[in-house]
């Protein structure tokens, strides 16, 4: 995934006392963009096939289902991505 090399470049730039905010925002935004793309693509495929779009119960039930599949790795990845975005914006992307 491109976010790792971009984050590495941002880290190197920051260590060299160069502006790295823009790279941080890009590296942090990539995971969120990929999830949005997947959700949109899945929704379009469901509609193209004429299948009903699942109507979930409560948001808590959906979160429990997702939690079973993601364990600890995915939340930590997205927390790190969000932190990269925030630090990048604070540094003046």
Topology:
Blueprint lengths: L2 H13 L5 H28 L10 H12 L2 H18 L3
If you had to describe this structure to a student in words, what would you say it looks like?
The protein is mainly alpha-helical. Helix content is 76%, strand content 0%. The model has no long low-confidence stretch (mean pLDDT 79).
The succession of helices and strands, N to C, reads HHHH
Portion of residues in helices? over 70%
**Rg computed from alpha carbons, rounded to a whole number of angstroms:** 17 Å
Mean pLDDT: 79
Short characterization:
By secondary structure, this protein is mostly helical. The chain has helices at residues 3-15, 21-48, 59-70, 73-90.
Supply the key terms.
single chain, 93 residues, 76% helix, 0% strand, mainly alpha
């Amino acid at each position: 995934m491109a976010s790792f090399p971009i984050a590495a470049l941002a880290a190197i730039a920051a260590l060299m006392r160069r502006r790295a905010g823009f790279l941080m925002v890009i590296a942090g935004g990539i995971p969120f963009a990929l999830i949005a793309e997947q959700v949109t693509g899945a929704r379009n495929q469901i509609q193209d096939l004429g299948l009903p779009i699942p109507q979930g119960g409560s948001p808590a039930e959906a979160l429990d289902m997702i939690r079973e599949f993601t364990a600890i790795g995915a939340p930590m990845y997205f927390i790190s991505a969000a932190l990269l975005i925030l630090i990048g914006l604070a540094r003046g992307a």
